[in-house]
């Protein structure tokens, strides 16, 4: 006699097999223009766990299994949402260039809603309000707001985005750690940067105010510093662009339906050997230093730590400015010596929730912190007036495992 329990389980198994066959075998044949779905086991939940666990690994798997190694857009499912993954550089440009079909606002709206902004507040903010007064727009010394339509609502929207993305300033602490880590493990780069940056200091001492950033910030005058910056961001960020599909649109021959979401995971580009050559996962700033002409254009057109398109990070110059300056001052004022094994470079943690998905720079893998001895360098200069924050930053490095002994 078969029990009811056995019958129920058999029924559920048949139901599950039917669902799998329908979703991943029959439907794709009926809708050849829809992006192929990466199969999953639990309906509705889909890839939610691996998505938040390690987006890069999931995207790599999808690209290999259903994305024809980057030729096609493919789809994931997470908590009932369909998310299209775009990895082909040509398709990425199509997404960036099509503001009519892809939008970023929905995500910031959701964010401010979760922060407690009322429905009325959102409708005022995200509707178009009165124009900004001209005195507000005309700011002295060449500074202008990047508000395309100069409406008050657009300004407030940008400020909301800033709040959202300022979360990324934790990126800066992580990036100082990564930049320093790579330099300390490659001391010949420190000497090269010290040599090329030296003319940027005017007068006596190593005060911030005496550092000519225009000099430090250009790749012509300080190519090693620039190459270290580019290579560090290439290897240590897992940035994404997130878009909502606002009307049906075809990308790379695949139909993306209104209401679905799109993710562009730039880390896949950054680790692509067909772009960055063999050993694309290794720190080798020479690849940026040595590249010329078309090769250089190719490297930079795939270098996307700051995203792209309409919502490309407006804070990128600020971040570069602050981090390069800080790095220069640090390596001029201090000598660093790694205590212990100097051959093992701490790896990035792609799996930690705090760095996933796509929040910019990644954390260091648990247990891979290391100790350094920091001494005042022979170069002159103490912290100048108003530079106490640098001392605070140095202290914050201790949390990440770098410490004064
Ligand atoms: C190294 C540090 C940083 C990284 C890696 C980074 C990365 C990113 C990325 C990947 C995006 C999304 C771009 C896209 O949608 O395609 C973004 C957007 C944004 N970032 Fe940054 N960011 C950094 C620092 C900053 C800073 C310091 C600020 C503010 C001063 C800032 C302000 C913004 C804003 C306002 C947006 C939203 C733009 C929009 O909605 O149009 N970011 N950032």
From TrEMBL:
Keywords: Heme, Iron, Metal-binding
The UniProt record lists the keyword Iron: yes
Cofactor entry: heme
Pfam families: p450
GO molecular function: heme binding; iron ion binding; oxidoreductase activity, acting on paired donors, with incorporation or reduction of molecular oxygen; steroid hydroxylase activity
Entry binding sites for heme: 313
SUPFAM superfamilies to which the protein is assigned, alphabetical: Cytochrome P450 (SSF48264)
PANTHER family in UniProt: 24-HYDROXYCHOLESTEROL 7-ALPHA-HYDROXYLASE, CYTOCHROME P450 FAMILY 7
Record family assignment: Belongs to the cytochrome P450 family.
This protein's name: Cytochrome P450
Species whose genome carries this gene: Podospora australis
């Amino acid at each position: 006699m078969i029990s009811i329990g056995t019958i129920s389980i058999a029924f559920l198994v048949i139901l599950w097999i039917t669902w799998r066959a329908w979703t991943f075998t029959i439907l794709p044949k009926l809708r050849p223009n829809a992006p192929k779905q990466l199969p999953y086991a639990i309906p509705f939940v889909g890839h939610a766990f691996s998505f938040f666990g390690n987006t890069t690994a999931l995207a790599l798997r999808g690209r290999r299994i259903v994305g024809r190694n980057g030729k096609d857009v493919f789809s994931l499912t997470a908590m009932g949402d369909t998310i299209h993954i775009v990895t082909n550089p040509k398709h990425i440009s199509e997404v960036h260039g099509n503001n009519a079909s892809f939008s970023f606002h929905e995500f910031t709206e959701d964010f401010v809603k979760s922060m407690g902004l009322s429905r009325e507040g959102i409708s005022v903010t995200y509707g178009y309000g009165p124009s900004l007064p001209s005195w507000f727009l005309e700011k002295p010394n060449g500074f202008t707001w990047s508000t395309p339509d100069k409406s008050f609502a657009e300004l407030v929207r940008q400020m909301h985005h800033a709040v959202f993305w300022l979360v990324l300033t934790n990126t800066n602490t992580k990036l100082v750690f990564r930049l320093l880590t790579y330099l300390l493990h490659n001391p010949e780069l420190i000497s090269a940067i010290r040599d090329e940056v030296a003319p940027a200091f005017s007068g006596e001492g190593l005060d911030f105010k005496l550092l000519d950033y225009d000099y430090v910030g250009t790749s012509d005058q300080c190519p090693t510093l620039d190459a270290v910056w580019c290579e560090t961001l290439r290897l240590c960020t897992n940035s994404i662009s997130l878009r909502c599909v606002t009307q049906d649109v075809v990308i790379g021959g695949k139909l993306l339906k209104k209401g679905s979401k799109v993710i562009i995971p730039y880390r896949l580009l950054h680790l692509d050997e067909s772009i960055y050559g063999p050993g694309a996962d290794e720190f080798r700033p020479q690849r940026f230093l040595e590249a010329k002409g078309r090769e250089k254009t190719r490297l930079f057109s795939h270098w996307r730590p700051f995203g792209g398109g309409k919502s490309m990070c407006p804070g990128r110059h600020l971040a570069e400015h602050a981090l390069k300056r800080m790095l220069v001052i640090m390596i001029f004022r201090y000598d660093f010596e790694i205590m212990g094994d100097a051959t093992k470079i701490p790896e990035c943690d792609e799996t930690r929730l705090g760095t996933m998905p796509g929040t910019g720079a990644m954390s260091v893998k648990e247990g891979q912190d290391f100790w350094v001895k920091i001494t005042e360098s022979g170069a002159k200069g103490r912290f100048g007036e108003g530079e106490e924050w640098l001392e605070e930053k140095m202290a914050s490095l201790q949390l990440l495992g770098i410490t004064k002994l």
